């Protein structure tokens, strides 16, 4: 389904006139941000979506991958669709991939894009649900569940696949190990340049992330991301495949969430 939608969309896009953008020696610049928004709640414990929108607007991103996104989830986020609300405030296209769906309540990851979303898919990977057991009960077992989002974009004439993920948070790395293997398998099904962003809940040197570095390269921002106030570890990432060059990256110092966003300036080959 994704391939069929993409093929049709690319035919339309190829007929369109080329975007008027500065040419960086045959490469196309794209700024990508990864941000765990903590359901819109800042380090001060206050829900303030306008504050997060202002932070993201100031970063001038082309593509934003979000984690811990509430869609009418509960009182903590005022029952808002935070993905749509941020997209509206930033005038960006929105693709939301729920991890959990309970009635009309949803929680998951999202991609905001300044470029049209040509196709989207919500892939299933192994999860140990926090909705069926607190942390966890002995009867709980890892099982496939949605929440590994993929979107296909066309950025100033160049195709780009963006994946957004939120890996398991527990100290035991076994679920993350399975998630990494499954993400690699899913991403290998598609050719062309790819960007994977997310909260990996592990530092770059973690053994369970080792296999991932065979397929993608870490856009190392040179700083820690969590907790936002006095961060001591980096668990948030922008990573790139072959065909995407990292021009620079940094961590923004905002306290609008309990994580700090990673900002990466990338270059796509035409």
Q: How would you describe this protein?
A:
It is a single chain. With 270 residues, the protein is an alpha+beta fold. The chain has one domain: Endonuclease/exonuclease/phosphatase (Deoxyribonuclease I, Chain A, 4-Layer Sandwich), CATH 3.60.10. The protein contains four helices and twelve strands; from the N terminus they run H-E-H-E-H-E-E-E-E-E-H-E-E-E-E-E. The protein has helices spanning 2-15, 49-59, 82-90, 174-188, and strands at 27-36, 63-71, 93-102, 105-113, 117-127, 143-155, 158-166, 194-199, 217-218, 236-240, 244-251, 262-269. The strands form two sheets. It has a six-stranded mixed sheet. Strands 5-6-7-8-10-9 form a six-stranded mixed sheet. A hairpin with a 2-residue loop joins strand 3 (93-102) and strand 4 (105-113). Helix 2 (49-59) crosses helix 3 (82-90). The model is unreliable at 1-21 (pLDDT under 50).
